[in-house]
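Before we proceed, please read the two lines closing this message. Let me know whether the C-alpha cells fit the sequence:

…
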Amino acid sequence: VQLGVCGGGLGQSGGSLRFSCAASGFTFMRYTFSWYRPAPGKEREFVTRINNGCSITNYADSVRGRFTISRDNAKNTVYLQMNSLKPEDTAVYYCNVPTRGYWGQGTQVTVSS
C-alpha cells in the first residue's frame, strides 16, 4: 500500500497551490480519502474529506470556500487545490484513508505573507 503525495511547496498569501495523493496497492474507488495537518495542541487536525460514492466532500471551517478536494478514480488520485492561501495554512499536509488507517508521507506547504 502506498500513498504518494506530490506537490505543495512555497506559496504566497492570497495565492494557490495544488497537490495530489496517488494511491496504489488497494482498491482506490472503494475508499474515502482525507487530508490532515498538524495543529496546536493536536497531533493532526482534519482539513477535508471526499467520500467514495458520490464524492461528497466535507471541509474544516478554516478552509471552507478556499480549498477544494477532488478525486479521479481512473488515476487513483486525490487532489487538494488550495486557493486564497493564508500564512496559517503553513503545515505539513497528510493524505489519509480513514477506514484503513493509511497515511501518506506528508508534504510541506509554506505560505509567506
Residues 29 and 73 are 6 Å apart (CA to CA). The two ends are 37 Å apart (CA to CA).
